Amino acid sequence: MIKVASKFNFSYPSYATFVRDVYGTATESWFDLETKYKTPTGWWNLMLKYGGVTQQDIYYTLMLTVFWTLLRIIITDFIYKPIVNNAGLDAQSTRKAPESVWKLLFYSCTWAYSIYILFFTEHNFFYDAPSSFYGWKPQSPVPTKIYIAYLVQFSFYAHSVYGTLFMDVWRKDSKVMLAHHFVTLLLIGFSYAFRYTNVGILILFLHDITDILLEGTKLAVYYKTKGGKWHSVCDFLSTVGFILFGVAWYVFRLYWFPLKAMYAAGHVSLAVSQDLVFYHFFNALLWILLAMNIYWFTFIVVMAYKVVTKQVSEVDDTRELDSKNLTKSVVQNGNKRD
User: Fold this and answer.
1) Mean pLDDT over all residues of the chain?
2) How is 214-236 classified by DSSP, letter by letter?
3) 99-147 confidence digits (pLDDT tens)
4) Are the C-beta atoms of residues 270 and 2 closer than 8 Å to each other?
5) CA 113 to CA 107: how far, in whole Å?
6) What are the angstrom distances between the C-alpha of 283 and each of 70, 258, 262, 269?
7) Distances (CA, A) of 210 to 2, 126, 199, 226, 311
8) In the chain, at which end, N or C, are there fewer CB atoms within 10 A of the end residue's CB?
């Protein structure tokens, strides 16, 4: 049985300590936590007892999901596309650029709002991740600031499922991206219903920054050959953006995410509270998200390896092109430069 501590003396762990402590807590608590609910009927009864979703929440979510879709269509057709069409980009970049602009603006706004919550309010979960579980109780009220962030993010990812299927350019990893959207929806919805929202806002903050850098870098790549000419500034920006993107991906998603958020949810949570419901399910979702982060990091490593070994001469998106077409694209752009 895990001991409850009145005050948890926390220091961020190494990877080895993280795996050991989270695995130990999960396995040790398996036979003690929610024993009587380990059947489908028991899970359903637990959801009915502790799940905190109102009709108003559902209404707001549906309305915002439609709003994001309509807003993207209107802004893309009347603002993004005319600007991109006048930029003289190639056909593929003309198709992809409006998508990147839309995502860049959205994630910039949501990340800025997360910064406000975590660094300019009383919700100091970035510096003190364990405090996200202090005084935790099921069905407790969600602070308005965090509620707004959750409503915006959940409705956007609901829109993103439609967007990936019918609005975005299809890529090699689009199926994985769809799986990511569903896992994210499940995480956001579940963490709201069962009040894991404190650690949830930290997780959203740790993930949005890389989307900003990704979309900004892709725009720099698309604009390198604007007007049929080679633009060295955009080439430089794409290289710098790629480096920042790779570093941020590791620091935010592969270092701080497991060692701050996952450690707090997987180990600290049961040390400071014995009222947790669906502890194992919630943490299983976090591990799935971590696995996806590792999967996408391999694309970054592959691209960096190709640049360092001079298999390619510039940064491109390895998710969209196979190796043969990637090399062909680089040669063509190199010719344009000459």
Assistant:
1) 84
2) HHHHHHHHHGGGGGGS--HHHHH
3) 999 999 999 999 999 999 999 999 999 999 999 998 887 778 899 999 9
4) yes
5) 10
6) 34, 11, 7, 11
7) 36, 17, 19, 25, 25
8) C
Using alpha carbons, select from 87, 334, 91 the residue that is nearest to residue 230.
334
Q: Which of 129, 167, 148, 185 lies closest to 57 in space, CA to CA? A: 148
Alpha carbon separation from 55 to 44, 50, 51, 125 (Å, rounded)? 19, 16, 13, 29
Is residue 245 predicted with pLDDT exceeding 90? yes
Neighbours of 82 (CB within 10 A): 12
User: pTM of the entire structure?
Assistant: 0.86
- pLDDT(294) > 70: yes
Which pLDDT value is given to residue 37? Answer: 59
> In whole angstroms, what is the distance from residue 322 CA to residue 302 CA?
12
In single-letter form, the type of residue at position 136 comes to: W
| Contact call for residues 263 and 21 (beta carbons, < 8 A) | yes
